[in-house]
Every structure is written in structure tokens, then in C-alpha cells.
Specification:
The protein has 487 residues and is mostly beta strands. It folds into 2 domains: 365 residues, Neuraminidase; 105 residues, Jelly Rolls (Sandwich). The chain has no helices and 39 strands. Strands 1, 27, 28, 29 and 30 form a 5-stranded antiparallel beta sheet that branches. Strands 14, 15, 16, 17 and 18 form a 5-stranded antiparallel beta sheet that branches. It has a 5-stranded mixed beta sheet with strand order 31-33-38-35-36, with no helix packed on it.
């Protein structure tokens, strides 16, 4: 067993109900986090109709929309949120003896942007998939099929932010795609899909890249380096730079049982380091989930079953590829757990959601629960309120100080001002601004370049959500105040 120090992610909120349905057996579908801090939770009701709903809250926890629970299309199977809180829903619909997938896109107010569009260009008896909205607002869908020949094919397709197709469906993975596990689009517009293959009874975790500019699917590459019989339960995560992470569950690699691993890749597909084991016990691990943060550190969650105890756990890995602490147990011992999700932002805030069950005789009930954290492996920005300055800032050349502000809906303007307490100014600091993620020298939505410490940025009609501010020392500086004014 691996021995690690006891250090944990900062718990932002202990276990709480993620939806407002008080009783019954909800079918949990999943959650999605927008870069602006919005969280969407999707489930099916406990009523006979099994109607799917979404509950959305903003970065401050306030409900978004006219109603707390907004009804979604029947047979919703996947949801993803755009940077500004708009969201895309993938749902299935019977078509005679076949099934089709449809994409519906909604704005942040919950209004349908356009009529649902069919995703698959060819007919299939059985079909399911997943949707992901990229940093630039484009949408990728990956799906797999079964029940007709050739069986178990995988496909992908891109759409613009309004749901209009950008290409014809493209096949990936040959004829042995067992399940599609994750999809996202990088800053070049290239789509990455993580999936599981079944070749002669051996299951492998694979990744494939579709180059949009070339309209070409490159050969899939095996992610796992251990060639055991079961390498499955994978997940895909991507950060703003286009680097991506694949996690999976492996059997037999560390003994007679399962353990959970992750592999980081650079944009374009080159491995960064070797596979990292994130779980510390041999158990019946299953169904991993992952988040990759902007500094290339990450969190991986999985469900384990050890000595009669079934729990959901997560571990953090720093940007050098080292596991930083013993796994955190996010849930108490639970008799049964259905699907669970790990959703969050590349800035480091994340939620784990799950559906436990309390069994009594032949009946059972389940509520969707959640727990919120802030990763230890990223910088934690200081929250600013409008008109309340962060005072007397100082730092060395090349140093960063990070702040954030949560902008309410219908804000007319936002002014960010850095002012010097002394004349002439002591040193030289610049402002960097980014919506939905920490700014860097290379990744920013706006910056200043003035000499000294008297800089300002103004944004007219800023979108609602979290803006991140970086104060960067072009030279060593001191005696500076930072103020944000929302009007």
C-alpha cells in the first residue's frame, strides 16, 4: 500500500442535497460546470414519468432561471456547460426500430437557442454518447453504437455554439469501440476522444484525435502501458491550453484487484511523464472521473469497495506529476451508489455529486448529494467585493497575486483599478483579466501595459459569473491598492 501524508483539498461546503426533490428514487444523470462558476445538475424525477430536470446555480449558489428545476427533453443522457453558462443537452429519441441522438442548445436563461438537431448521420439500433462544450463555445459529441453490423462503432461530430453541424460524422476506433468515455475540443479545434476497446477479451483505454482543419481522424493510441485484461472506466479532462488528462481503472497491475491511474498529455498527443497511480489501495475500483487544472495539476475521483466499505474517493496530483496527499474520502460508507460525477473549473474549484441509496426491505430511496472542494494544487484567489479594495499590495518582479470577483447578471459595467499609494509609484505592476480562469502572460482576456502602478481596465456589460484578476510584477513593486467597481 502506498503511504502518503494526510493533506486534503479545502472543503468549501459539506455534503448537501444537490436537487430539491425531497423523496423518491432519482436517477442521477450527471453534472456540468461552466468556467464562470455555474453548476448544472441533471437527474430524472422519482415519478412514474421519469422526467429529466436540470437545476442550475451560479458561483454564489443562487438558482439560475425562473424555476429551480427546469424540465429537459425525455431520454436526456449527457449535459455540458459553456464558459458563459449556456449549456448543451444530448438526448435520445426512438425512430422506428432505431434510435437517434439529438443535440439541444440553451442560453444561460434556459431558452432553447434553436430547434434540436439530429447528431448521427447514419441509423443504428442502439446508440448512446456524450456531449462537451469547448472553451471557444463549439460543441463536440462522441457516441458509440451496437445491435447491428458492424457492431460497436464509435463516431464523433462537431457543432457551432448554436448547434449547427460543422462536419459530417467521423468514425474512430475501428469496429471494436466498447464504450466512449470522454470528449473535448482543444484550442486548435481538434477533438480528443477517450474510449475503451475490447480486442479478444482484453479491454484497453484509448485516445484518438480528430484534426478539424484536416478533417482527419488520426490512429488511436493506447493510453495504458500495462497490458492486463481490464483497463476501463476511463475519463477525459482538458484545460485551457489544450493539454488533456485520461484516467482509468486497471486490474492486476498492483496485485489481485483494481487500482486507478491517470496519464497527462500535451496538446497534440505527446505524453507528459508516465502513468500515475492515484489510488493507494487494491480494491474493486470502478468508474473514474477527472479534472485538469490550468497549471497541469489535476484531481481524479473513483468509487472503491474495500472490506465491505463502498466509498467515493479522490486524489490530487501536482503539476510535476506527484500525488500530493492520501486520497480524500468524499462520501461515508454507502450501501449502494449509482452514477457519480466530478465537475469543476480549470481554476481549481470542483464538486463531487453522487446518488446513494438507503435500502429498506424491497424498497429504496435515493437523493442526489454533493460536496464542494478547492484544490490544494492551484492558487486560491482572494474574493473581492465591489468597492472594497485589496490594500497595500507588493511583490517581487515576476510575482503574481490573484483575485476574483463574482459578477451578477445585468451588471452594466465593471472597472478594475490599480492605484499607487505613493508618488512616484514604487515599481511597476500590470493588471491581467480573464473570464472563467486564472490569467497568465499568454492567456488573458485583457491586460494593461502602463508604467507604474496606476492602471485600469473597464468591461462594458460583463457576462455574469466569475472574473479572475492577476496583478503581475513587471518589476518589484509596493504600496498599490486594487479596487473593483460594479455598476
Amino acid at each position: 500500500m502506498l503511504a502518503l501524508p494526510s493533506a486534503y483539498a479545502v472543503e468549501l461546503r459539506p455534503t448537501y442535497p444537490a436537487v430539491n426533490e425531497a423523496t423518491g428514487a432519482q436517477d442521477y444523470i450527471g453534472c456540468a460546470a461552466a468556467a464562470n462558476g455555474d453548476i448544472a445538475t441533471v437527474w430524472r424525477s422519482a415519478t412514474t414519468a421519469r422526467i429529466p430536470y436540470v437545476k442550475r446555480v451560479d458561483a454564489s449558489g443562487a438558482v439560475i432561471g425562473a424555476t429551480e428545476s427546469m424540465q429537459l427533453p425525455q431520454d436526456t443522457i449527457s449535459v455540458s456547460a459553456a464558459k458563459n453558462g449556456a449549456f448543451a443537452v444530448l438526448h435520445a429519441k426512438a425512430n422506428g426500430s432505431n434510435t437517434d441522438l439529438y443535440l439541444s442548445v440553451y442560453n444561460r436563461n434556459g431558452q432553447l437557442v434553436s430547434a434540436p438537431v439530429r447528431v448521427n448521420d447514419t441509423q443504428h439500433t442502439g446508440i448512446t454518447g456524450l456531449v462537451k462544450v469547448a472553451q471557444d463555445g463549439t460543441i463536440a459529441v462522441a457516441w458509440y453504437t451496437w445491435g447491428n453490423l458492424p457492431a460497436r462503432n464509435g463516431y464523433l461530430k462537431r457543432f457551432n455554439a448554436n448547434g449547427a453541424p460543422l462536419n459530417y460524422q467521423r468514425q474512430f476506433g475501428g469496429d471494436n469501440v466498447y464504450v466512449a468515455n470522454g470528449v473535448d475540443t482543444d484550442t486548435n479545434g481538434d477533438v480528443i476522444v477517450a474510449f475503451t476497446t475490447n480486442t479478444g477479451g482484453r479491454y484497453d483505454t484509448m485516445a484518438v484525435r480528430y484534426a478539424s482543419a484536416e478533417d482527419w481522424v488520426y490512429p488511436a493510441a493506447r493510453v495504458n502501458t500495462y497490458l492486463g485484461t481490464r483497463q476501463w472506466g476511463s475519463s477525459l479532462a482538458m484545460n485551457a491550453a489544450g493539454n488533456y488528462l485520461v484516467s482509468w481503472v486497471t486490474h492486476g497491475q498492483d496485485g489481485n484487484g483494481f487500482s486507478t491511474y491517470a496519464q497527462l498529455f500535451a496538446r497534440g498527443g505527446a505524453r507528459i511523464g508516465q502513468p500515475t497511480r492515484v489510488s493507494t489501495q487494491i480494491s474493486d475500483d470502478s468508474a473514474s472521473a477527472a479534472l485538469l487544472f490550468d497549471n497541469n495539476s489535476y484531481a481524479v475521483a473513483w468509487m472503491s469497495y474495500v472490506a465491505g466499505q463502498r466509498t467515493i474517493n479522490f486524489a490530487q496530483v501536482d503539476s510535476a506529476g506527484a500525488v500530493v496527499a492520501a486520497p480524500t474520502v468524499a462520501t461515508p460508507h454507502i450501501n449502494y451508489v449509482g452514477p457519480f460525477s466530478l465537475c469543476g473549473t480549470t481554476a481549481g474549484k470542483f464538486s463531487i455529486q453522487w446518488r446513494p441509496a438507503a435500502v429498506s426491505g424491497s424498497s429504496w430511496t435515493a437523493d442526489v448529494l454533493a460536496r464542494d472542494y478547492m484544490a490544494d494544487t492551484v492558487v486560491t484567489p482572494t474574493l473581492l467585493a465591489s468597492g472594497v479594495p485589496a490594500s497595500n499590495l507588493s511583490d517581487a518582479a515576476g510575482g503574481w497575486k490573484y483575485f476574483k470577483v463574482i459578477v451578477p447578471a445585468n451588471t452594466g459595467s465593471m472597472r478594475i483599478a490599480l492605484s499607487s499609494r505613493v508618488t512616484p509609484a514604487s515599481g511597476n505592476a500590470d493588471l491581467f483579466l480573464r473570464y472563467g480562469g486564472l490569467p497568465t502572460l499568454a492567456t488573458t482576456d485583457g491586460r494593461t501595459t502602463e508604467a507604474g502602478n496606476n492602471d485600469s481596465l473597464t468591461v462594458s456589460a460583463p457576462p455574469p459569473g466569475t472574473f479572475y484578476i492577476g496583478v503581475y510584477g513587471q518589476a518589484a513593486y509596493a504600496a498599490a491598492d486594487l479596487t473593483v467597481i460594479l455598476r
